[in-house]
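thought: user wants a sequence for this fold. calling inverse folding tool.
action: design(structure=
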């Protein structure tokens, strides 16, 4: 199957298309070969005679074996990449790019897409003959991220690229995409001029509100009003068409839905680099609106214009040198380092308000709306290298490309935190499947898995997000989970300590030496162990002294102070003293909860001198999330196991053959399913044999044994009485098989009895998140227990082990009550293998291994069920979301 055309970003941020060569490309391909300079032609063909080049074009157009892709900008074909098979797993590649488009990443993009296409055919390597003077081509090969071996001398060299391990190449491609996204979105995220469509003459309506906000909040650039009648809006003159004057960076469209396309066409013709469609009435309104939405998305994409919305609140670019508030309903908050994106305008308004009240400065706010083009992934990419952005916060209701989100958020999170809330996590999206795995994998669990692996700090609602961001932008990351709680009211200190425990923090007992020192500082209490009860009579200096002593001790990683206003203390003075202590200990978080002193707390918050929270529970929870994120940052990254294109190609061919013979539900017999898993190193315990050979096989394996019916139409064997265990001789086996009521030649699984910890492993495909690997409590408890976790493949053994340690069943694997530890590492490796299978063979729709018995020395897969369905590869080479 040929790949679909893909919209891509060149290195300068412009939009191109990579697609397979089409029969009608002949004239354009001949023009490309005729138009390049003599030097470029010589570097490609090692000669100057162009007749051979035109003959090669005809070969490419006619050949079914040659893999060929072109890059186009608009109607112009600007690049060609070809791969000629030289062996069953190797292709020789060559590239030609128009002279004026060299240095814009065309060749690199073609290489990435060509490698993906070749891997789908089972290829493991590329070769190329390159002139030593062709430095650009050599840089493309060495910079792509593949393992490159260069041989030969003199004027020519041979290059071999190992395209099997795509993880390093993917990481390199992502970094290139980050840079391209930042350039592409510059007109949106840092505009120097803006045009507003839809403002009424009297300034009313949504367009008028957007225009008023732009002017009110001090936009630093030029403001243009576009009205077809040319009538001014207040004191602002209007253009009839944007093209009647100089072009602008950004166009904001707030016109009725029926006029959006015409307004967008005018903005494109007038040279706008990006557009925000505030107007509603598109995809949210049903099929007709979806069509209109797709039309404007494609129009913008064809012309290289990035588009936000439709059906959105607008954008706010709050950098001091921009100050653009192109929204309706928002007042520009203070400037800071937080970048915020929200798929809901209403949630966006709530978040901006909560963050402003918490004293968190905002750098950027983007209301994503229906996400016809610009998405959270695009914004994370553009924000990745921005030194002025220190934290990203997202409210999402859908994932256009969840696997790309995983990569982008993980890369972003390794530098600076990503905090997110996802709406619509309820069981409404749950599918009742035929296997344990499908029944257990809820959308909420999938999002939890996605966030855990990406290092995204998950919050339940807008308030939690604002509280967490307040700590993240105001304080350093904790270096551990040790927390000290200091209060001047013992009961509130106890409650804060309880909240800290709930948040996964450790309210550690202080050393005897530290307790002795604190005993001399508290006021008429004995609370110096942690939490510290400083006493109602403690003054500002005394409280600051306690805070300094605790932070200087090295025994804690963070400090939470709960300060209650009384008639005998000066909260404002205490906050000033604590601000000085915070400055003296910049490496450890210090969070203050003033109770009954709102004005003093507000002043401290506004000045930025302290991080002030509204309650001890909120502060502890936010610190707990920050500590968990810091742990994720410190965790070593295990390398991913490389894929195997040849294995994947053969496995997909086998899956296609099995599907042709399978029933309408796609369930596969045990023997065939076992062969599929065996390719990936996962072996089913025992043997599948005809029913009349079960007794003899059992005698050879050794008693006691278990026997199970193994037909393709059998899913839940236990419920149907098709499992017999603990059989001690041939007669018992024969009787059990006869009781199944199957034919003499029907398949039966014969297994030795094994003991250990029962686990369930499985694979399920989510419509949004793609393949997911489940680990859960095994046996009949799978559907009763809620102890389960999902992982988004591919993942490493280390990530699987971290997931296992978060489960309640972990003590049983670690060796509970004197039992020997189970082979948890082998279990993690089995989960990794299932993830590889799920990625490489998209036809695997549902897989259930239950139970998997984990003993001290090995892992035994006792039962398996596999359902196949037609699928497409989950990973794609670098490209924009389809418009």
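)
observation: tool returned 883 residues.
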């Amino acid at each position: 199957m040929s790949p679909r055309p893909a919209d891509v970003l060149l290195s300068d941020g412009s939009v191109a298309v990579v697609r397979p060569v089409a029969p009608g490309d002949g004239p354009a391909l001949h023009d490309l070969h005729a138009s390049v300079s003599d030097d470029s032609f010589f570097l490609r063909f090692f000669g100057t005679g162009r007749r051979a080049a035109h003959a090669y074009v005809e070969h490419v157009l006619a050949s079914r074996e040659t893999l060929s892709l072109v890059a186009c900008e608009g109607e112009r074909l600007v690049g060609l990449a070809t791969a000629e098979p030289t062996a069953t797993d190797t292709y020789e590649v060559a590239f030609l790019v128009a002279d004026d488009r060299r240095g814009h990443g065309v060749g690199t993009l073609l290489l990435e897409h060509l490698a993906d296409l070749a891997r789908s055919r089972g290829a493991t390597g590329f070769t190329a003959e390159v002139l030593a003077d062709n430095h650009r081509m050599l840089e493309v090969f060495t910079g792509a991220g593949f393992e490159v071996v260069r041989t030969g001398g003199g004027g020519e060299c041979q290059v071999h690229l190992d395209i099997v391990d795509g993880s390093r190449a993917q990481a390199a491609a992502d970094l290139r995409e980050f840079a391209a996204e930042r350039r592409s979105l510059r007109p949106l995220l840092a505009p120097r001029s803006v045009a507003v469509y839809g403002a009424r003459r009297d300034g009313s309506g949504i367009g008028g509100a957007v225009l008023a906000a732009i002017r009110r909040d001090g936009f630093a650039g030029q403001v243009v009003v576009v009205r077809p009648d040319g009538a001014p809006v207040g004191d602002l003159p209007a253009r009839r068409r944007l093209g009647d004057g100089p072009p602008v960076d950004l166009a904001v469209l707030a016109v009725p839905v029926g006029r959006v396309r015409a307004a967008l066409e005018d903005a494109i013709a007038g040279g706008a680099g990006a557009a925000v469609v505030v107007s509603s009435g598109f995809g949210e309104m049903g099929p007709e609106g979806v069509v209109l939405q797709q039309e404007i998305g494609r129009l913008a994409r064809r012309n290289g214009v990035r588009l936000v919305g439709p059906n959105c609140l607008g954008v706010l670019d709050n950098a001091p040198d921009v100050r653009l508030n192109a929204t309706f309903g928002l007042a520009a908050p203070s400037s800071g380092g937080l970048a915020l994106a929200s798929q809901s305008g209403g949630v966006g308004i709530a978040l901006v308000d909560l963050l402003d009240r918490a004293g968190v400065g905002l750098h950027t706010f983007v209301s994503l709306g229906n996400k016809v083009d610009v998405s959270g992934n695009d914004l994370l990419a553009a924000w990745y290298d921005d030194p002025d952005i220190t934290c990203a916060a997202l409210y999402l209701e859908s994932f256009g490309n969840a696997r790309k989100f995983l990569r982008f958020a993980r890369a972003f999170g390794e530098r600076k935190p990503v905090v997110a809330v996802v709406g619509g996590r309820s069981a409404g999206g749950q599918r009742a499947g035929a296997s344990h795995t499908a029944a257990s994998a809820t959308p909420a669990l999938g999002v939890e898995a996605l966030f855990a692996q990406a290092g995204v700090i998950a919050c339940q609602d807008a308030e939690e997000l604002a509280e967490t961001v307040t700590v993240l932008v105001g304080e350093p990351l904790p270096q551990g989970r040790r927390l000290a709680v200091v209060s001047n009211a013992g009961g509130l200190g106890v409650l804060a300590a309880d909240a800290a425990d709930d948040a996964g923090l450790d309210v550690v007992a202080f050393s005897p030496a530290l307790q002795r020192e604190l005993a001399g500082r508290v006021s008429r209490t004995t609370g110096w162990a942690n939490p510290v009860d400083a006493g109602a009579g403690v003054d500002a200096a005394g409280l600051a002294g306690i805070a300094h002593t605790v932070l200087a001790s090295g025994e804690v990683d963070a400090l939470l102070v709960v300060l209650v206003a009384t008639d005998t203390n000066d909260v404002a003075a205490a906050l000033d003293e604590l601000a000085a202590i915070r400055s003296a200990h910049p490496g450890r978080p210090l969070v203050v909860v003033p109770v009954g002193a709102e004005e003093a707390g507000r002043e401290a918050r506004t000045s930025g001198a302290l991080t002030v929270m509204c309650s001890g529970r909120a502060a502890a929870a936010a610190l707990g999330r920050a500590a968990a994120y810091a742990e994720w940052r410190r965790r070593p990254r295990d390398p991913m196991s490389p894929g195997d294109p040849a294995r994947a190609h053969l496995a997909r061919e086998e899956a296609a053959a099995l599907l042709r013979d399978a029933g309408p539900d796609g369930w596969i017999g045990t023997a065939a399913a076992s062969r599929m898993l065996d390719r990936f190193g996962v072996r089913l315990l025992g043997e599948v044999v005809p029913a009349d050979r079960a007794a003899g096989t059992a005698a050879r394996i050794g008693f006691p044994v278990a026997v199970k019916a193994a037909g393709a139409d059998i899913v839940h064997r236990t419920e149907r009485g098709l499992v017999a265990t603990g059989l001690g001789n041939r007669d018992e086996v024969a009787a059990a098989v006869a009781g199944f009521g199957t034919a003499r030649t029907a398949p039966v699984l014969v297994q030795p009895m094994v003991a250990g910890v029962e686990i369930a492993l499985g694979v399920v495909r989510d419509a949004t998140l793609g393949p997911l690997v489940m680990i859960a409590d095994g046996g009949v408890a799978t559907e009763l227990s809620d102890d389960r976790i999902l992982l988004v493949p591919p993942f490493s053994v280390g990530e699987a082990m971290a997931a296992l340690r978060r489960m309640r069943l972990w003590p049983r694997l670690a060796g509970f009550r004197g039992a020997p530890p189970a082979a948890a590492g082998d279990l993690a490796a089995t989960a990794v293998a299932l993830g590889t299978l799920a990625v490489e063979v998209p036809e695997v729709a549902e897989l259930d291994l239950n139970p998997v018995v984990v003993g001290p020395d090995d892992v035994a897969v006792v039962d398996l069920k596999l359902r196949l369905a037609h699928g497409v590869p989950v990973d794609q080479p670098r490209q924009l979301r389809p418009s």
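thought: summarizing for user.
answer: Here is the designed sequence. The first strand starts at residue 6 and ends at 9.
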